[in-house]
Amino acid sequence: MSQIYDLHCHSTASDGSLPPVELVRRAHEKGVNVLALTDHDVTDGLQEAATTAAELGMGFVPGIEISVTWSSSNQTVHIVGLHIDMASEELQQGLEKLREFRNWRAEEIGRRLEKKGISGAYVGASDLAKGAIISRTHFARFLVEEGYAKDMRDVFKNYLIKNKPGYVSGKWASLEEAV
């Protein structure tokens, strides 16, 4: 009998669409045997996901997806960490710095979109966020729902990439810090 693993997924703790408990239940219903929750820069949903997985007899891997600025190219990459120590003070301090930047960036995206005539973007994205992070995905959902774009791809192409009105470059952890 084969095992089904999903080692990279997001909940509403970052930019996913399901709360951690519902995400684990949905994965179980779909036949996943081992699930890793790897939210962006936050560990908030790990404990409840682990508890739900244990109740369902499912394997669970505590994880994270850390945003990293890659060397001198200033390119953003995401490092997935598996079997992390959620209680690590060093990890939590690093993630707090990333969340502080994310909060500032979300406010700045809202200001930039406002300047281009899109009012309420920050509040709209904030309303769509269910966790500690307001991400570009939340802005994208807002822009689609409000009719500024036809779909997520259109949002990123016209609003949230370099040289577009809502673009704010990332200043993330270094690779060395993330590792």
Report on this structure:
With 179 residues, the protein is an alpha/beta fold. The chain has seven helices and five strands, in the order βαβαββααααβα. It has helices at residues 20-29, 46-56, 89-115, 121-128, 136-145, 152-160, 175-178, and strands at residues 5-9, 34-37, 59-70, 75-82, 173-174. Strands 1, 2, 3, 4 and 5 form a five-stranded mixed beta sheet that branches. The longest helix is centred in the middle third of the chain and has 27 residues, at 89-115.
Highlighted features:
179 residues; 7 helices; five-stranded mixed sheet; alpha/beta; 5 strands
Topology summary:
Layout: E1 5-9, H1 20-29, E2 34-37, H2 46-56, E3 59-70, E4 75-82, H3 89-115, H4 121-128, H5 136-145, H6 152-160, E5 173-174, H7 175-178
Parallel strand pairs: 1-2, 2-3, 3-5
Antiparallel strand pairs: 3-4
Helix pairs in contact: 1-2, 3-4, 4-5, 5-6
In short:
With 179 residues, this protein is of the alpha/beta class.
Structure class: alpha/beta
Number of helices: 7
The share of residues in helices is 40-55%
Largest sheet, in brief, is: 5 strands, mixed
Please, what is the average pLDDT?
A: 94
